[in-house]
Amino acid sequence: RKTTLAAWLRCLCLVDLSAKVQQSNCLGGLQRLSAEAGGEIASHSGAGTTNYSSNSQCYWQLDAPPGKRVVVRFTYMDLEPPNGIVTLYDGLTTSSIIIVVSAKDSVGYESPKFVSSANILTVHFYSSSQYARKGFRLEYNATVSANSSACGPVTFEDASNSSGTIVSHPGYDQHSLYATNMSCNWTLPSVSGKFYQLYIGSVSLGNGDCLSVNQGTPAAWKGGSLNVNLCGWKAVTDMTL
């Protein structure tokens, strides 16, 4: 049988479609998945188009290699709280909750990224016997953990030390995560007759982490947009008269 070019191209398309990201649906019980390989978790095979089954309960254990951390992000969410919820746990046990997620309306839903503190993150999906909806989808992968707990530097851009930047940790510009259990303090030099304006260029902090600014005199804030990412935070300083 002679194979035409059109038939060959159609075959290639079929192969490409079958090579999509692996999806693991709720099958009951526990599924153990490799975060390094990446993939997608879903409430059921028809997530986004059909309703999930009532009385569902599933766990997914996402494992990353030692030295890496697990990153997850919801790409679709349509659950009926409190009858359908997804809980992310930090590690193997259910004692450390990262977040409990439940949303009625998926229109305009935008999920932040959630990151484990070590190399394991557990996902739990529960649905009751009432109000089933179209479920959820969640992407997962592994990311490089911080190499050290060192704090980032203060870098001045001129000889008078009147402007510069502060980054949370080395590797910020390479999109690495900051380490756990960090405590950093930066003191900017006092210059007679001038005060500081502080612009927070981008910020992304884990649950329970915080950034505070303390000054002896009232602070002047320079406006700007807030860019959220997974790389800690970056502050830009500018000294004015």
UniProtKB/TrEMBL annotation:
Q: Does the keyword Repeat apply?
A: yes
UniProt keyword list: Disulfide bond, Repeat, Signal
Task: Name the Gene3D superfamilies for this protein.
Answer: Spermadhesin, CUB domain
Q: Which residues form a coiled coil?
A: none
Q: Which CDD domains match?
A: CUB
Cleavable signal peptide:
1-23
Query: Does the keyword section mention Signal?
Result: yes
The CUB domain covers which part of the protein? 26-143
Entry-linked Pfam families: CUB
Q: What is this protein called?
A: CUB domain-containing protein
> Highest lineage ranks of the organism?
Eukaryota, Metazoa, Spiralia, Lophotrochozoa, Platyhelminthes
